[in-house]
Amino acid sequence: MKRLTVRPENRHQAALLRLLRDGERSRAELGDVVRLSRSKLAVEVDRLVALGLAEQSGLAASRGGRRSGLVRLSPRLRFVGIDVGATSIDVAVTGGDLEVLGTASEPCDVRQGPAAVLDRAMEMVAKLRAQGLAEEVHGVGVGVPGPVSFRDGVPVAPPIMPGWDRFPVREAVSQELGCPALVDNDVNIMALGELHAGLARQVADFLLIKIGTGVGCGIVVDGNIYRGVSGSAGDIGHIRVDDFGPACACGNTGCLEAYFGGAALARDALAAARGGQSPYLAERLETRETLTAADVGEAAAAGDAAAVRLVREGGRRVGLVLAGLVSFFNPGLVIIAGGVAGLGHTLLAEIRSVVYRRSLPLATGNLPIVLSELGGTAGVVGATRLISDHVFSVD
């Protein structure tokens, strides 16, 4: 496939593109923000138009003199976001402004390995393109549920992803779609989704806690993802909360993730059903082979005491770890996301209670702890934000 490499030529053009990503602007408004003379701004805007990255879109309202021309991103720009989860794949196509034009979602076991999973993702992208949503693709962002070397574009020893270690995800996807690609941890792309279109739009420093099959934390500092030296920052699911706890997928024992995550919750729900502690879950188990976190949520909503206990105990453990993070990092916002976050306000109330009780008062005096409102779109939107930041740059 022919490779698309259209990029801005200098930092002024890059700044203009990022401004236009948030909506069309008049030339006067653009000049006010990027601090360019009228003549220099005209040169840079005209060059973006020539590159096919922007276009004229009419005239702005008068500010007391000659009406300024409106500029917007080219409507032909297309980005693809791919969010690979432990048990599913979500794909989206967006315009340059990151408005979602179409999505696809399918169940998929990440343990099938990179070749099978990425082939499936490419098929989903092809179906969306066949609907006329993307004649060209100008960049693709990918999230995977494990540690990632962002510099190299590869997963590194991911506990729940056998066969993925050092697989060249970025290179494989870039070659397949013929455009720039970036790969990151799934929690980081969810945090970027919240930063772009969610509750964190006006917050520069926040934490996103994803509770899904595993547990992770996206760390945003001054509007940017903090990845650490090797890319493993935020892997809070493997913080030990009990020296003698259950075995974890990472090989250690007593990790937070071994106590509370989708897999751990399903395990404990099964034990409660078989042990006679939960009539609701026992009845549910009679019609299926196993139980899930969603079953626990439904049982808790129905007032099942054992299910409520599981949710509260999990929330307590998450809250204990989060309390330490809040005292250390002092975020302006904490967002709880992921499939298990669907347990809702029972879980949120327990997490809040522990954090507000155990963290420093100065850190929690004005700290909202909220459930994500983006749901399943946070990851794919964040993936397109990730790649658009790269495409709209000169790095």
Describe the structure.
By secondary structure, the protein is α/β, with parallel strands linked by helices. It is built from 14 helices and 15 strands. The chain has a five-stranded mixed beta sheet with strand order 6-5-4-7-10, with helices on both faces. It has a five-stranded mixed beta sheet with strand order 13-12-11-14-15, with helices on both faces. Strands 1-3-2 form a three-stranded antiparallel beta sheet. A hairpin with a 3-residue loop joins strand 4 and strand 5. The model has no long low-confidence stretch (mean pLDDT 93).
Question: How are the secondary structure elements laid out?
Answer:
Elements: H1 11-21, E1 25-26, H2 27-34, H3 38-51, E2 54-59, E3 69-73, E4 79-84, E5 88-94, E6 100-107, H4 114-130, E7 139-144, E8 148-149, E9 154-155, H5 169-177, E10 181-185, H6 186-197, E11 206-211, E12 215-221, E13 224-225, H7 256-259, H8 262-274, H9 279-285, H10 293-301, H11 305-329, E14 334-337, H12 345-358, H13 361-364, E15 369-371, H14 378-391
Parallel strand pairs: 4-7, 7-10, 11-14, 14-15
Antiparallel strand pairs: 1-3, 2-3, 4-5, 5-6, 8-9, 11-12, 12-13
